[in-house]
Amino acid sequence: MKHIRNFCIIAHIDHGKSTLADRLIQACGGVSQREFHDQLLDSMDIERERGITIKSNSVTLSYRAADGEEYLLNLIDTPGHVDFSHEVRRSLMACDGALIVVDASQGVEAQTVANLYLALEYDLTLLPVINKIDLPAADVDRVREEIDADLGLDPFAAIPVSAKTGVGIDELLAGIVAHLPPPQGDPEAPLKALVFDAHFDTYRGVILQVRVTQGTLKTGETIHFMHAGRDYKVDELGYNQLKLIPKKQLSVGEVGYIVAGVKSVQDIEIGDTLTLLSRQATEPIPGYKKARQVVFSSIYPMSTDEYQDLTKALEKLAINDAALTFEKDSSAALGFGFRCGFLGLLHLDVIQERLQREFDLGLVISAPSVKYKLKLRGGTTIDVDNPSYWPDPTEIEATTEPYIRASILIPEEYVGPVMDLCREHRSESQTMNYLSAGRVEVTSEMPLGEVLFDFYGKLKMITRGYGSFDYEQIEYRQTDIVKVDILVNKEPVDALSYLVHRDKSRTRALHYCEQLAEAIPRHQFKIPIQGAIGGTIIARSTIQPFRKDVTAKLYGGDVTRKNKLLEKQKKGKAKMKQFGSVNIPQKAFVSVLRADKD
Prior knowledge:
This protein is α+β, with helices and mostly antiparallel strands and 598 residues long. β4 (97-103), α4 and β5 form a beta-alpha-beta unit. The model has no long low-confidence stretch (mean pLDDT 80).
């Protein structure tokens, strides 16, 4: 065990985790030059295109140290975005140490601090790494000060590297062996192995990524999932060295894969503890938490013929992504679809893009919402995330919504605009903490629903890209939420209903009405588009009708002839409005919701 090192790379988004992982794999000879490509551990096209890690991945590397000893390095590359913090949490549970990567030009960011606290929660040994020292804007001395002030780590222990050019990688590998501790545990004790990840293989079923914390597991033994309560026989196990390398056994401290005939990721729970059925451990590994969906949205196919294709596509995605939940939903305007739960807006965006790209589906997605808790007059409490299930306002006694504690790291000159932005989004308390010269942390408590739409984009815009944002959910607080219906020609369109705070209801309703007025084609009669709370109209736009000059054929005579024709036309228009139906094109739904999301 003293020759094993289990560690992960954690950092803020876009600080070079995946590039650093590539260099470490190359330095240890884990991949040949011919097979190498950038972002080796990022398996999805979206990850490579956007330069983000969505799913954590692991690799086992062999490293020969300067003293001639052979070490086994188990590296886990983790996501940096706040939406996937549960992936980071599981990865940390599987490690004994962590590399905290800090960008030499941008310094310590919000997610770096959040991940540091997560790592300390699991009692990991931390090794700071200053990346991107090759950049013209790199300021290593300033970053060392920030590592000392913001992270509380030894600034002189930080190893400066350039993951792009490969400078400092050998020193980093030597530092990993010297500073990070080997795993502890008893190989003779009852088996305990943490399932920190899983992915689906078409031919072999679910392949589990595990870290053995005590005991030994051999091929052919029957394993028991302690949380899910299921049993499976191990067909194969071994190391993941970019290819799966079979072994006879996995012992304490080792990280590897298990193939055990599991049919779907939904059958098991990521973060679960494995033990032997014949000799079970008394208690699971502590720290297990279920992934919580915080954003909910309905997905409909653009064409109703594609409903079956959408069903199959979501089932396939759910096989790989245990955090995605979905249930059947329907709308009078858009037909059948699914109500889906996501970890955050980036998760929603990624799922939407994968559905469109991998399964070639045209989609309409409803406005995202959060889960509200309602206390009804009868004393019962219900959770509502879908406007369709919002009860009659007279039955509601009290409404609460989820609040978050947002941590925003910004340069000092942007404090004023950022505080205004927080107040705009119903922030309840704001505190400032000066971390170092010119850097401020603004902590604000605000509703999660307010962050869903445009908060992150506006923050990046007003801070010129220098602001970083992280949040944690804290509690539910009393609020005044209303359901706004959008009426087209006095008929409610259920797919466009949304839940919003009363103060923001008119602004959003006006936006919906204006967008629909532009997207719906003109008819022969006047079409009112209205936003309403119950029976009260709060916003309106009007689509003017086509006009035909019915008096053009007159060539003289009394004015009464002209009035008679105009009156006849007026009656015809009124009759048309009464019986005519408004055809709302699919692009109208897309334009309203897309503009709202931007």
